[in-house]
Amino acid sequence: MDIDPTQPWGTAIDYAGRATIVEDGHTVHINVTDTSLSSVIEPDPITGRHPAVYVSAQFTETGDSNVVLRGYGQVSVQPTDAAPVTPDPTAIQRAVAAAIADFRANTAACAALCAAWTTPAPPPETGEEPAPA
Questions:
Q1: How many other CB atoms are found less than 10 A from the CB of residue 130?
Q2: If you ran DSSP here, which 8-state letter would residue 66 be given?
Q3: Which of 9, 53, 87, 92 could make an SS bond with 77 (beta carbons 3.0 to 4.6 A apart)?
């Protein structure tokens, strides 16, 4: 994924912290959120620290027989000292890379499972009667 140096988070996000990008042939949905319950960015009254910011990336692909595989990646950006989190232009890139790696792992696991459950071919017919048991 190419980082856009003109954007604080490395890619354009909307007012709600969402973006959609295409990476490695997949349409990946991005979400940038913090853990606060308020729209005002202020320190937690108990810990005195600003909330961390989480960047998640996820996508699904549908195959034959309605098989759906998912890729999901998440990174966190922690505040430093008593300051709020500053945008990390590599956070989205790292989340997308984690989602692609997760998707590839899920694809390999699904392929292995399908191979393990393959029905063996029936024995060829010889025209002979089976021996009595």
A1: 6
A2: G
A3: 53
pLDDT of 38: 63
Which of 93, 109, 102 minimizes the C-alpha distance to 23?
A: 93
- Give the distance between the most distant pair of CA atoms in the chain: 84
pTM of the model: 0.79
Long-range CB pairs of 15-21 (<8 Å, 24+ gap) are: 19/92, 21/92, 21/96
pLDDT for residue 120: 72
Query: What integer pLDDT is reported at residue 122 of this predicted model?
Result: 74
Summarised one tens digit per residue, pLDDT across range 15-33 is: 888 999 999 889 999 999 9
Q: In what order do the strands lie in the sheet containing 26-34?
A: 18-23, 26-34, 53-62, 68-77
Helix/strand/coil (H/E/C) assignment for every residue in 81-127: CCCCCCCCCCHHHHHHHHHHHHHHHHHHHHHHHHHHCCCCCCCCCCC
CB 94 within 8 Å of CB 30: no
Separation of alpha carbons 4 and 75, rounded Å? 19
